[in-house]
Amino acid sequence: MEKKGILIVISGFAGAGKGTVVNRLREKYEGYALSISMTSRNPRPGDVEGKNYFFVTREKFEKTIAENGLLEYAEYCGNYYGTPKAYVEEQLEKGNNVILEIEIQGATNIKKAFPESLLIFITPPSAAELEKRLRGRGTETEEQIGKRLGRAAEESAGMDTYDYIVVNDEVEKCVDEIHSIIDIAHREPVRMKTFISELQDQLKVYK
Ligand code: 5GP
Fold first, then answer.
1. Is residue 206 domain-shared with residue 139, that is, in the same domain?
2. Best residue for ligand 1 mutational test, from 23, 103, 104 (most atoms within 8 Å of Cβ)
3. Nearest residue CA, atom 10 of ligand 1?
Protein backbone atom coordinates (compact mmCIF):
# COMPACT_ATOMS: atom_id res chain seq x y z
CA MET A 1 0.00 0.00 0.00
CA GLU A 2 1.31 3.46 -0.80
CA LYS A 3 2.96 5.36 1.99
CA LYS A 4 2.76 9.09 1.54
CA GLY A 5 3.34 11.26 4.58
CA ILE A 6 0.66 13.65 5.82
CA LEU A 7 1.46 17.27 6.56
CA ILE A 8 0.09 17.81 10.06
CA VAL A 9 -0.32 21.17 11.75
CA ILE A 10 -0.57 21.15 15.52
CA SER A 11 -1.58 24.42 17.12
CA GLY A 12 -2.77 25.36 20.56
CA PHE A 13 -2.57 28.21 23.04
CA ALA A 14 0.85 28.79 24.60
CA GLY A 15 0.73 26.62 27.72
CA ALA A 16 -1.68 24.07 26.22
CA GLY A 17 1.02 21.42 26.47
CA LYS A 18 1.57 20.92 22.73
CA GLY A 19 5.33 20.49 23.10
CA THR A 20 4.91 17.64 25.59
CA VAL A 21 2.20 16.00 23.49
CA VAL A 22 4.22 16.19 20.26
CA ASN A 23 7.37 14.77 21.93
CA ARG A 24 5.40 11.90 23.42
CA LEU A 25 3.68 11.20 20.09
CA ARG A 26 7.06 10.83 18.38
CA GLU A 27 8.41 8.69 21.21
CA LYS A 28 5.42 6.35 21.26
CA TYR A 29 4.70 5.94 17.56
CA GLU A 30 6.85 5.59 14.45
CA GLY A 31 6.74 7.56 11.22
CA TYR A 32 6.62 11.11 12.58
CA ALA A 33 9.10 13.86 11.75
CA LEU A 34 9.05 17.21 13.51
CA SER A 35 9.82 20.36 11.57
CA ILE A 36 12.16 22.73 13.42
CA SER A 37 11.10 26.32 12.88
CA MET A 38 13.21 29.38 12.34
CA THR A 39 12.54 32.31 14.67
CA SER A 40 13.81 35.79 15.42
CA ARG A 41 12.79 35.58 19.10
CA ASN A 42 15.47 35.27 21.78
CA PRO A 43 16.11 31.79 23.19
CA ARG A 44 14.33 31.11 26.50
CA PRO A 45 16.17 29.29 29.30
CA GLY A 46 16.42 25.65 28.22
CA ASP A 47 15.96 26.36 24.51
CA VAL A 48 18.48 24.49 22.37
CA GLU A 49 19.61 25.78 18.97
CA GLY A 50 18.60 23.35 16.22
CA LYS A 51 16.36 21.36 18.57
CA ASN A 52 13.67 23.83 19.65
CA TYR A 53 14.33 26.37 16.92
CA PHE A 54 16.91 27.78 14.58
CA PHE A 55 17.46 31.16 16.25
CA VAL A 56 18.30 33.91 13.76
CA THR A 57 18.30 37.71 13.48
CA ARG A 58 15.39 39.56 11.86
CA GLU A 59 17.71 40.32 8.95
CA LYS A 60 18.56 36.67 8.36
CA PHE A 61 14.86 35.76 8.66
CA GLU A 62 13.89 38.37 6.06
CA LYS A 63 16.63 37.11 3.76
CA THR A 64 15.21 33.56 4.02
CA ILE A 65 11.73 34.88 3.15
CA ALA A 66 13.15 36.65 0.10
CA GLU A 67 14.92 33.46 -1.00
CA ASN A 68 11.59 31.58 -0.82
CA GLY A 69 13.09 29.24 1.78
CA LEU A 70 9.99 29.07 4.00
CA LEU A 71 6.79 27.08 3.57
CA GLU A 72 4.96 29.67 5.67
CA TYR A 73 5.80 32.31 8.25
CA ALA A 74 4.02 34.66 10.64
CA GLU A 75 4.71 37.37 13.19
CA TYR A 76 3.68 36.43 16.72
CA CYS A 77 4.09 38.73 19.75
CA GLY A 78 6.61 40.87 17.83
CA ASN A 79 8.81 38.05 16.52
CA TYR A 80 9.04 36.14 13.26
CA TYR A 81 8.40 32.38 13.14
CA GLY A 82 8.61 30.27 9.98
CA THR A 83 8.81 26.72 8.61
CA PRO A 84 11.92 25.87 6.55
CA LYS A 85 10.75 24.32 3.30
CA ALA A 86 13.46 21.75 2.41
CA TYR A 87 13.14 19.47 5.45
CA VAL A 88 9.35 19.18 5.18
CA GLU A 89 9.46 18.28 1.50
CA GLU A 90 12.21 15.71 2.07
CA GLN A 91 10.39 13.97 4.95
CA LEU A 92 7.01 13.84 3.17
CA GLU A 93 8.78 12.29 0.21
CA LYS A 94 10.24 9.61 2.52
CA GLY A 95 6.72 8.75 3.67
CA ASN A 96 6.94 10.32 7.12
CA ASN A 97 4.11 12.35 8.64
CA VAL A 98 5.54 15.80 9.21
CA ILE A 99 4.39 17.80 12.22
CA LEU A 100 4.43 21.58 12.16
CA GLU A 101 3.92 23.04 15.62
CA ILE A 102 2.78 26.49 14.53
CA GLU A 103 0.27 29.22 15.36
CA ILE A 104 -3.00 29.96 13.66
CA GLN A 105 -1.98 32.37 10.87
CA GLY A 106 0.63 29.86 9.73
CA ALA A 107 -1.94 27.04 9.98
CA THR A 108 -4.39 28.94 7.80
CA ASN A 109 -1.70 29.58 5.18
CA ILE A 110 -0.66 25.92 5.18
CA LYS A 111 -4.27 24.79 4.65
CA LYS A 112 -4.61 27.19 1.70
CA ALA A 113 -1.39 26.00 0.07
CA PHE A 114 -1.87 22.30 0.99
CA PRO A 115 -5.59 21.47 1.21
CA GLU A 116 -4.78 17.87 2.13
CA SER A 117 -2.92 18.90 5.29
CA LEU A 118 -4.51 17.99 8.62
CA LEU A 119 -5.06 20.79 11.14
CA ILE A 120 -5.30 19.78 14.80
CA PHE A 121 -5.89 22.22 17.66
CA ILE A 122 -4.88 21.20 21.19
CA THR A 123 -6.61 22.98 24.07
CA PRO A 124 -6.68 22.70 27.84
CA PRO A 125 -10.14 21.92 29.25
CA SER A 126 -10.69 25.52 30.51
CA ALA A 127 -9.26 29.06 30.57
CA ALA A 128 -8.40 28.73 34.28
CA GLU A 129 -6.37 25.60 33.55
CA LEU A 130 -4.56 27.44 30.73
CA GLU A 131 -3.53 30.27 33.06
CA LYS A 132 -2.38 27.77 35.68
CA ARG A 133 -0.19 25.87 33.19
CA LEU A 134 1.30 29.06 31.76
CA ARG A 135 2.32 30.30 35.22
CA GLY A 136 3.55 26.86 36.24
CA ARG A 137 6.03 26.87 33.39
CA GLY A 138 7.91 29.69 35.12
CA THR A 139 9.82 30.75 32.02
CA GLU A 140 8.01 34.01 31.25
CA THR A 141 7.55 37.39 32.91
CA GLU A 142 4.09 38.57 34.08
CA GLU A 143 3.99 40.87 31.07
CA GLN A 144 4.72 38.02 28.67
CA ILE A 145 2.10 35.81 30.37
CA GLY A 146 -0.47 38.59 29.98
CA LYS A 147 0.46 38.97 26.30
CA ARG A 148 0.10 35.24 25.70
CA LEU A 149 -3.28 35.02 27.48
CA GLY A 150 -4.50 37.97 25.39
CA ARG A 151 -3.28 36.20 22.31
CA ALA A 152 -5.11 33.00 23.41
CA ALA A 153 -8.36 34.99 23.61
CA GLU A 154 -7.80 36.16 20.02
CA GLU A 155 -6.75 32.72 18.78
CA SER A 156 -9.83 31.06 20.26
CA ALA A 157 -11.84 32.86 17.56
CA GLY A 158 -10.06 30.76 14.93
CA MET A 159 -10.50 27.33 16.51
CA ASP A 160 -13.28 26.40 14.12
CA THR A 161 -10.95 26.59 11.12
CA TYR A 162 -9.18 23.42 12.33
CA ASP A 163 -10.09 19.88 11.24
CA TYR A 164 -9.98 18.51 14.81
CA ILE A 165 -10.02 19.92 18.35
CA VAL A 166 -8.34 17.72 20.95
CA VAL A 167 -8.65 18.46 24.67
CA ASN A 168 -5.39 17.89 26.52
CA ASP A 169 -6.66 16.73 29.89
CA GLU A 170 -4.27 13.82 30.19
CA VAL A 171 -1.16 13.56 27.98
CA GLU A 172 -1.29 9.83 27.08
CA LYS A 173 -4.97 10.04 26.13
CA CYS A 174 -4.36 13.15 24.05
CA VAL A 175 -1.40 11.50 22.26
CA ASP A 176 -3.42 8.37 21.44
CA GLU A 177 -6.33 10.44 20.16
CA ILE A 178 -4.06 12.43 17.85
CA HIS A 179 -2.40 9.27 16.56
CA SER A 180 -5.75 7.67 15.73
CA ILE A 181 -6.93 10.80 13.91
CA ILE A 182 -3.80 10.65 11.73
CA ASP A 183 -4.01 6.89 11.29
CA ILE A 184 -7.59 7.17 10.07
CA ALA A 185 -6.71 10.10 7.78
CA HIS A 186 -4.33 7.77 5.94
CA ARG A 187 -7.40 5.79 4.86
CA GLU A 188 -9.08 8.75 3.15
CA PRO A 189 -9.54 7.97 -0.55
CA VAL A 190 -7.72 11.16 -1.53
CA ARG A 191 -4.54 9.74 0.07
CA MET A 192 -5.02 6.27 -1.43
CA LYS A 193 -5.25 7.18 -5.08
CA THR A 194 -2.51 4.77 -6.23
CA PHE A 195 -3.95 1.88 -4.21
CA ILE A 196 -7.45 2.51 -5.58
CA SER A 197 -6.34 2.67 -9.20
CA GLU A 198 -4.18 -0.48 -8.83
CA LEU A 199 -7.10 -2.37 -7.33
CA GLN A 200 -9.40 -1.11 -10.07
CA ASP A 201 -6.91 -2.40 -12.64
CA GLN A 202 -6.74 -5.81 -10.96
CA LEU A 203 -10.52 -6.03 -10.94
CA LYS A 204 -10.85 -5.26 -14.65
CA VAL A 205 -10.41 -8.96 -15.53
CA TYR A 206 -13.73 -9.74 -13.85
CA LYS A 207 -15.70 -7.30 -15.96
P1 5GP B 1 7.07 30.18 21.40
O2 5GP B 1 7.68 31.54 21.41
O3 5GP B 1 6.21 29.93 22.62
O4 5GP B 1 8.10 29.10 21.19
O5 5GP B 1 6.10 30.10 20.14
C6 5GP B 1 5.11 31.06 19.95
C7 5GP B 1 4.12 30.59 18.90
O8 5GP B 1 4.73 30.51 17.62
C9 5GP B 1 3.55 29.21 19.20
O10 5GP B 1 2.13 29.27 19.01
C11 5GP B 1 4.19 28.34 18.16
O12 5GP B 1 3.38 27.24 17.81
C13 5GP B 1 4.33 29.31 17.00
N14 5GP B 1 5.32 28.90 16.01
C15 5GP B 1 6.46 28.20 16.22
N16 5GP B 1 7.09 27.98 15.07
C17 5GP B 1 6.33 28.52 14.09
C18 5GP B 1 6.44 28.59 12.66
O19 5GP B 1 7.37 28.08 12.03
N20 5GP B 1 5.46 29.24 12.00
C21 5GP B 1 4.39 29.79 12.62
N22 5GP B 1 3.45 30.39 11.87
N23 5GP B 1 4.25 29.74 13.97
C24 5GP B 1 5.20 29.12 14.70
1. yes
2. 103
3. 103
